[in-house]
UniProtKB/TrEMBL annotation:
Reactions the enzyme catalyzes: L-proline + NADP(+) = (S)-1-pyrroline-5-carboxylate + NADPH + 2 H(+); L-proline + NAD(+) = (S)-1-pyrroline-5-carboxylate + NADH + 2 H(+)
Pathway stated in the Swiss-Prot or TrEMBL entry: Amino-acid biosynthesis; L-proline biosynthesis; L-proline from L-glutamate 5-semialdehyde: step 1/1
GO biological process assignments: L-proline biosynthetic process
SUPFAM superfamilies in alphabetical order: 6-phosphogluconate dehydrogenase C-terminal domain-like, NAD(P)-binding Rossmann-fold domains
Annotated organism of origin: Pedobacter chitinilyticus
Protein name: Pyrroline-5-carboxylate reductase
EC number: 1.5.1.2
Length: 267
């Protein structure tokens, strides 16, 4: 059974740890979670996880080390970890935005196996869209990381130069879709529904739209055509949104998020 250490146990790290245990990938006792204030991790201790505020000690004996700190904190953490790294045994998985595999190897050693993963916050309910990339890791290690993240959602393997784009589309994208749902619910209130009913209706409608595409494997326009009749109310609403820049603003937001994500490590 693999021993895993998660450096920086925020939302993503904790959700991954719980997902691995829930899907029987490994036992809680085989996962070490690090955080500066371990007094805040009583729930995790009760669940059987090991906790530590010493990153260097935490990776000793680990087979997989997940790097889950903020981009601005990573270099300091890597320098701290370098003396304890065992390149022949350990695999490093970075979920840090804007940090390349080469950036990690620069601090830990050129012969270290590094794979990048970009999940999103839906990892907490096992519904993450995780993108995975590497520039030099073995197929065996890549498959291991795919299996690891399949415990908490869907996985796509991509080229590393697309990872900042994946950050914008999938990780930041959660917020974009949530904002569109909020806007729809606000529209529902304006046309007569109580706020809680409008939100429930907007959420379920959004979920239904996503499931149509996933289950039918169709293009959005194919499903849109099914609800747009000549001179109808749906096409009138869609055209009004497009006249006001709906698609354009979403595309521009994704492009700007990708640009920002690419520079976080160096800020």
């Amino acid at each position: 059974m693999k021993k895993i250490t998660i450096i920086g146990s925020g939302n993503i790290g904790l959700s991954l740890a719980k997902g691995l245990v829930n899907k029987a990938y490994c036992k809680a006792e085989n996962i070490t979670l690090t955080r500066r204030n371990i007094k805040l991790m009583t729930e995790e201790v009760a669940a059987g996880f090991k906790v530590s505020d010493d990153n260097l000690a935490a990776i000793e004996g680990a087979d997989i080390v997940v790097l889950g700190v903020l981009p601005q904190q990573l270099k300091k953490v890597l320098v701290q970890l370098a003396p304890a790294v065992n390149p022949e045994k350990q695999l490093f998985v970075s979920v840090v935005s804007g940090v390349t595999c080469a950036d990690v190897r620069k601090e830990l050693g050129e012969n270290v196996q590094v794979i990048r993963a970009m999940p999103n916050t839906a990892i907490s309910i096992g519904q993450s869209m995780t993108c995975i990339a590497t520039d030099s890791a073995t197929d065996e290690n890549l498959n291991e990381v795919v299996t690891l993240f399949e415990t908490v959602g869907a996985v796509v393997t991509i080229q590393e130069d697309l990872m900042t784009s994946a950050t914008a589309l999938c990780a930041c994208g959660i917020a974009f879709f949530l904002r569109s749902i909020r806007a729809a619910s606000q529209g529902g209130v304006e046309i007569g529904f109580h706020a809680h009913d409008a939100l429930k209706m907007a959420v379920q409608t959004a979920k239904g739209a996503a499931d149509l595409l996933l289950l039918n494997e169709t293009h959005p326009e194919t499903e849109i055509d099914k609800v747009t009749s000549p001179k109808g109310c749906t096409i009138a609403g869609l055209n009004e949104m497009e006249h006001n820049g709906f698609s354009s603003s979403l595309i521009k937001g994704i492009k700007l998020s990708a640009k920002k994500a690419g520079g976080l490590y160096n800020e």
